[in-house]
Design a protein that fits this description.
The protein is an alpha+beta fold. It contains 3 helices and 6 strands; from the N terminus they run ββαβαβββα. Strands 1-2 form a two-stranded antiparallel sheet. Helix 1 runs parallel beside helix 2. It starts with 6 loop residues before the first strand and ends with a helix.
Length: 127
């Protein structure tokens, strides 16, 4: 049985950190944080800093769980960034700068989209 992935998200209004997500629900929270980050007022006297954290794992930490999460979460974030505007702040991610990563214990090669996501975050924050 797989342990659910956890996505930590921050509620700007209350200042509270909330834990949410499941093995199937992480993507909606990643997208929600990207939308909140891109929608904030960057012309304010003191704009809000945003740190998004789509990095996570399920199962054992010595397994390929981080890679499996990166395949999904990095692609979802990169795809969203390619079609939206607005600064998204800092994004912590698994396998940053690595498009592919070999399995920890098998011959499988994971498409982690790490370089694509880094490039898109930089481009997004320059728009």
């Amino acid at each position: 049985m797989k342990t659910p992935r956890i996505c930590k998200r921050f509620d700007e209004n209350s200042g509270a950190s909330l834990l949410a997500g499941s093995i199937f629900g992480l993507d909606q929270y990643v997208l929600r944080m990207l939308e909140a980050a891109a929608g904030r007022d960057m012309t304010a006297e003191k704009p809000v800093w945003v740190i998004n954290f789509p990095s996570a794992y399920f199962g054992l930490p010595l397994s390929d769980s981080y890679r499996e999460n990166a395949v999904e979460a990095n692609k979802v974030a990169a795809d969203w960034l390619s079609s939206h505007t607005g600064s998204v702040g800092i994004i912590y991610m698994d396998y940053a700068g690595m498009e592919k990563s070999p399995s920890y214990s098998t011959e499988k090669l994971y498409e982690t989209c790490g370089m694509t996501l880094v490039d898109r975050v930089i481009q997004q924050n320059q728009k």
